[in-house]
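Lecture notes, unit on protein representations.

Consider one protein chain, 284 amino acids long.
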Amino acid sequence: MSDTTDSTRLAYSGGVASPRRLALDARRLGWLRYAEHYLRTMRAFWVPLLLQSVGTPLLYLVAMGVGLGALVDRSHSSPMGVPYLTFVAPAVMVATVMGASATEAMYPVMSGFKWQRLYYGAAASPLSPGQIAMGHLLGACARFVIQAVVFWVFLIAFGAARSPWSPLTIPIAVLGALSFGAPLQAYSATLRDEGTSFNFVARFILTPMTLFAGTFFPLTAMPVYLRWIGWVSPMWHATQLARRASFGMPESPWLTAAHLVYLVGLVVVGVVLSRRIYTRRLGE
């Protein structure tokens, strides 16, 4: 049996891999092994996660389509010439998945370093701190994908996705979540004590970003001195991309490219910082 044999399959078959093979597997695919561990821990919470994944889009779309959306459409003031539900649904999708990224990048990271100290157990194995950081983010990414897929299904069911390119809202929402979650994971890894830091992020970063990043109304409807909040927030960039994919919002190609570059850049910065901070803290 070669060194590249799947150790998990070998264990299930009743065989025992050699220490060398297990170490090589961890060195090559340690990030994937930690992501698998992270997903297994989520199984204890699969019911509330499922209810949130289904209930959140359902409640939002009913409120926006049957409630507020009907009032806006009746007043003939729908933005961008589409029904309000069509306008707001992809933005709410992005905001919901990005909210999940904040959850996964704060308290679980603190738990790994301080409360349960699970990171230290993994670091005592052949896994490197960088692999642990990547595995955590990848495991959380699986949740983002599921939420985005469920939300997109509801978009189709409510008739809020008019473009054949609407499936692209799924990777766009996941990219938006990673662009916020990766830097936040790096920040959370620097904290020795949670204190009020996470409350500050939720109240003074995530909430204003949702309210002032063009989620519920076009950014141009805001005063000029407040538009910078949208310009610097990953939520606005992801929302613009999602609207372009969902109903063909008109936008110049260079601006679309700028949205992508900005989001990918945040992900790269967050991943690099996370790997460095995890390496420093787990090496102490």
